[in-house]
Amino acid sequence: MSRILVVDDHEDNVELLRARLEARGYDVDCAMDGQEALDKVRATPPDLILLDVMMPRIDGIEVTRQIKGDSSLPFIPIIMQTALETTEDKVEGLDAGADDYITKPINFAELEARVKSLLRIKELQDELARANEALLKASQTDGLTGLDNRRHIEERLCEMYVHATRLNEPLGCVMCDVDHFKSVNDTYGHQAGDAVLRQVAEILKDSAREIDRVGRYGGEEFIVLLPNANIDDARAFAERVRQAVEAREFTYDGGSLRRTLSAGAAAWPHPEIRHQEGLVKAADDALYEAKQHGRNRVEVFDGE
């Protein structure tokens, strides 16, 4: 059921419009002035607004400007209702962002037609917004694991590094890699390998805080960005993940297997980390050391 907000400072007009619209099956809410309308729109955005122009406190033109200028709100069609007949008044309302207008006294057959038309447009706009959101998410997400893909995690790294250096807050980074992953694909098949990667991704997500970002960096390699986390925090996180992977029995269609994980931890500030790429390289160098020292372990970047 479409929800319509009627805004008018004359109670008789409000009740008449409410009765007519509810008789057509719409859910109707009302506001008696512009400020009340803005409060209601921000709390629960309606599907359409029927808005009087001449009101105390904040008039309909200003209400329209504020609603249409608020990027946090979805598309909300606005029909302005006015007793003003001049072209200039109608143009001002449309310039403010109104989608249509109707003059008083209101012809209810005309109003119903305009409402139906704008609600159809609203439905199409909402479908388009959902499709665009899905496309954006797909462009940022690794299809196998559901984690951030490499491009998106690098964008987030840039934002986090700038934030950390500006506020002089630590930023941790962990790179981790499934040990002997190629043998999983060679021995058990690619479906088993995919299952292992998905389950490692679950462990990483479950271990991370709400503010952390977890991404698949490529192949069997993962990256975790840890805002406001120093090197001890990054090491502790990596060790928790390592232990969880070691304890996990990875299941796939037809069986189960075990694997371990190696990880490298680094954190800014560090005298040898001078840019965001340097932070990732430091964690990657530590990961290399973990591999060189026997795997299934965590190493920390020390700059040597």
TrEMBL record:
The Response regulatory domain, residue ranges: 3-119
Enzyme Commission identifier(s): 2.7.7.65
EC class name: transferase
PROSITE patterns recorded: GGDEF (PS50887), RESPONSE_REGULATORY (PS50110)
Pfam families associated with the record: GGDEF (PF00990), Response_reg (PF00072)
4-aspartylphosphate modified-residue sites: D52
GO biological process: cell adhesion involved in single-species biofilm formation; negative regulation of bacterial-type flagellum-dependent cell motility; phosphorelay signal transduction system
Keywords: Coiled coil, DNA-binding, Phosphoprotein, Transcription, Transcription regulation, Two-component regulatory system
GO CC entries: plasma membrane
Domain spans labelled GGDEF: 169-303
Residue ranges that the Swiss-Prot or TrEMBL entry lists as coiled coil: 114-141
NCBIfam families: GGDEF
Protein name: diguanylate cyclase
